Amino acid sequence: MPKFTVEHQTAHASAEAYGKLKQFLSKPDELKKFDPKTECQFNDATQTCSIKGSQFKAEVTIQNSGTGSKVSILVDLPLLLTPFKGKVQEGLAKMLSRHLG
Question: CATH number of the domain at 3-76, please?
Fold first, then answer.
C-alpha cells in the first residue's frame, strides 16, 4: 500500500489544534463522504488519532512547532486508489486549513 503524508502548520497550540481536530473528525458527515465505514480512535494522552476506513488507513499526529503546532496525516492507500492520491492530498489540505486556519 502506498503511503504519503499531508502536513499543515497552524498558529494554534498543540492542545487546541488537537481539540479542534477531534471535534471536526468526530462529525460523522466530514469523513463519511470519503468512506462510509470510517472510524476514528483518539488517544488524548499522545494527541494522536487513528482513522480506519474500508479503503484506507491514516494516522494523525500533532507536534509543537515554534509558536504553533504541526499536524501530520500519514495516509495508507491501497494500490488501486493510487491514481487518486493527488485528490486525497488536496482534499485533506483543504479540510485542515478550513478547520485549523
Answer: 3.30.530.20
